[in-house]
Amino acid sequence: MSTINRQLRLKTRPEGLVQRANFDLVEQPLDELQDGEVLVRTLYISMDPTNRVWMRDIPQYMPPVAIGEVMRGFGLGRVVKSRSSRYSEGDLVQGLIGWQDYLVINDSAKGYVRLPADPGIPLPTLLGACGMSGVTAYYGMTDIAPVKAGETLVVSAAAGSVGSIAGQIGKIMGARVVGIAGGADKCRYLVDELGFDAAVDYKAENWKQALKEATPDGIHVNFENVGGEIMAAVMSRMVIGGRVALCGLISGYNSDGRASDNYSVIIIKRLIVSGFLVLDYTKTKEAVQALAGWIREGKLKAEETVADGLENAPEVINRLFDGSHRGKLLLKIASDM
Ligand code: NDP
User: Fold this and answer.
1) N or C: which terminus of the chain carries fewer CB neighbours within 10 A?
2) Ligand 1 centroid to residue 78 C-alpha, Å
3) What is the pTM of this model?
4) Backbone angles phi, psi at 233, to 5 degrees
5) DSSP 42-64
C-alpha cells in the first residue's frame, strides 16, 4: 500500500495574519522510489518569519511561493527509505523540507544537509540555537557587526530565536547587553535567565525613556530584528560610528509596512548599517561547533517552543507575530523512530 503524504499548499495570499483558509490540505499517495531517491519523514518544521514573507507576492531574496505550491519551509526529517548512494536509512536531513509529512529528494538535490543519525544535539536545538537561527545570530555578531568588550549592544525581538542567541553571544564577547521584548515576563527572562544586563518592555508606557536609562553610554551595536518605531528609537541612541547588523524587520511582514524614510540618522551618526542573509554564510560548520560548545559549557541557553501538527501550521506561524512563544518556534510533525 502506498504512503499518503499530506501537504499544505498555498491557496490564497494572506492579508494580515495567516488563516487556515489560505491553504489547501492535500493528501497525495507517494510514488515508488526511483534509483538515486530517498524518502524523508518530516519530524519538525521551523516556523520562521521569512515564511510569512514567502507567502507575499513582493520582491524578495527568493521567489514568492506560487499559488498551488507546497508551502516552502525549513525543517528536519529522517530518511525512512533509500535508493541513494549518498543517504542511508536513519540519516537526518535538514533543509527546505516544506510544509508536508514526507519529502522525496534525489542524490543531486541542492539545499539539503545530511546529518548523522545521532548528531549529539537534541533535534529541536538543531533547528534553533544550533540551526539557522543560532547561525544567523553568530554570523551577525562575529562577522557583520561584532561588539567589543565594554561596548553596549541592543537586540530587538530579544526573547525570540535569533535575538536570544545574539544577546547571549554579546555577553560572551563582554558587552553590556540590552534586550527589547514585549511584556514583563519576557524582560524578566532576559535578565534573570539569559543574563542580559537590562531589558526594555516595548509594550510598557515610557519604554523609550527606559531604553535611554538602560543605555547611558549610547548604543555601539544594534542587532536589529524588528524595524519601525523600535528601530527608530534604537537608532536615535546610537553613538557616532555605531554599527547595525540589519537582520530582520518583522514589524512589517504582515502588512505593507513601509520602509522608514528617516535615513538621516545614518548620516548624522555616520553609522555602518549592514544587511545580511544567513544563506550567504560560508562558516556554518564553525558556527554550529561554537554554539554547541557554548551550550555544553553552560554559557548559552537554548530554548524552544514546540507546537504540534502539520494541519496547525497556518495558525502556529502567527505566534511569531503575537509574541506568544520564547526562543525557537517549531512545529512537531512526527515522533522520531
Ligand atoms: P522570533 O523567534 O524572534 O519571533 C519573532 C518575535 O518578534 C516575536 O516573538 C515578537 O516578540 C517579535 N515581534 C513580532 N512582531 C513584532 C512587532 N510588530 N513589534 C515588535 N516585536 C515584534 O523570530 P526569529 O528569531 O526567527 O526571527 C527574528 C528576526 O530575524 C526576524 O526579523 C527574521 O526575519 C530575522 N531573520 C533573519 C535572517 C537573516 O538571514 N537575515 C535569518 C533568520 C531570521 P515580542 O514578544 O518581543 O514582541
Assistant:
1) N
2) 28
3) 0.97
4) -65, -40
5) EEEEE--HHHHHHTS-S--SSPP
* Residue spans per domain, the chain: 4-128+303-332, 132-280
Mean pLDDT of 152-178: 98
The finding on whether 182 has its CB within 6 A of some atom of ligand 1 is: yes
Stated as kind and residue range, the H or E segment containing 168 is: helix 161-172
Do the first three CATH levels of 4-128+303-332 and 132-280 match, i.e. the same topology?
no
Report, as an integer, the average pLDDT of 230-234: 96
Please tell me the distance from the alpha carbon of residue 64 to that of residue 56, in angstroms, as a whole number: 6
Check pLDDT > 60 for residue 124: yes
Domain 4-128+303-332 has CATH 3.90.180.10: yes
In testing the pocket of ligand 1, which one of 143, 154, 162 has its CB within 8 Å of the most ligand atoms?
162
For the chain, what's the residue count? 337
pLDDT of residue 263: 84
Mean pLDDT, all residues of the chain: 95
CATH 3.90.550.10: does it fit domain 132-280? no
